[in-house]
Design brief:
CATH superfamily of the largest domain: HAD superfamily/HAD-like
Radius of gyration: 17 Å
Number of helices: 10
Helix content: 40-55%
CATH architecture of the largest domain: 3-Layer(aba) Sandwich
Structural class: alpha/beta
Shape: globular
Strand order of the largest sheet: 5-4-1-6-7-8
Length: 222
């Protein structure tokens, strides 16, 4: 496999505590029941604007009003709540050491992503990186992967998408790219299986086994 493309939140890092803290803050500020969070969480993996639109569009709240409340949480001041999944730093290091090229296709905006990658020590580990700032259409539209294909000159068969949401997997299918689902993020194994991934990894150890099977011979470079 010439390029492994990772989602970020829920795939590489456990961002659920940070996301839920921001959602709780927003719901309290808007005077809404916290039970709304369960519906909102269904759309994690989409650009936040789209998740807000799907959750609150029928509740008489403007997207901008919800976004203002959500972003007033000050996510940058609470990023200690976000951590790589257990074993993920060593897996990324191992893949790079074996000459495997890695990329990111995420629904997170560029500024917080760059900051969080730097905090983890992953600056420069992934290239290219595609965020909603780089495309007109977010997940599950295939544009993010199509952009990676354009930038790298690779074919869809050269890529493997690793993600934790149906939006990641549906994006891969639409782009003609094989996918692997991880189960330590936001969605159940059943929901992910319905999207037709090539393999399912319940945790990082299982993901390592799957990805190593895809690697080119050690020392070769794409």
């Amino acid at each position: 496999m010439k390029l492994i493309v990772f989602d970020f939140d829920g795939t590489l890092v456990d961002s659920r505590p940070l996301i839920e803290a921001g959602m709780t803050h927003a719901l309290d500020r808007l005077g809404l029941e916290r039970s709304v969070m369960e519906e909102w969480l269904k759309y994690v993996g989409l650009p936040v604007e789209e998740g807000v639109r799907r959750t609150f569009g029928s509740r008489g709240l403007g997207v901008d009003d919800v976004l203002v409340a959500y972003r007033s949480f000050g996510h940058a001041d609470h990023e200690h709540l976000l951590r790589p999944f257990e074993g993920m730093p060593s897996l990324i290091h191992e893949l790079l050491d074996r000459g495997q090229a890695l990329a990111i296709a995420t629904s997170k905006r560029r500024t917080p992503l760059d900051r969080q990658l730097a905090a983890i020590g992953w600056t420069g580990a992934f290239s290219p990186i595609i965020t909603p700032d780089d495309v007109a259409n977010g997940k599950p539209h295939p544009e993010s992967l199509e952009r990676i294909l354009e930038l790298t000159g690779l074919a869809p068969a050269d890529l493997l998408m690793v993600g934790d949401t149906p939006f990641d997997l549906d994006m891969a299918t639409a782009a003609g790219v094989a996918s692997v689902a991880v189960g330590h993020g936001f969605y159940s194994a059943e929901a992910l299986a319905a999207c037709g991934p090539r393999a399912y990894a319940p945790d990082t150890a299982a993901l390592r086994d799957i990805l190593l099977a895809y690697l080119q011979p050690e020392g070769s470079h794409a």
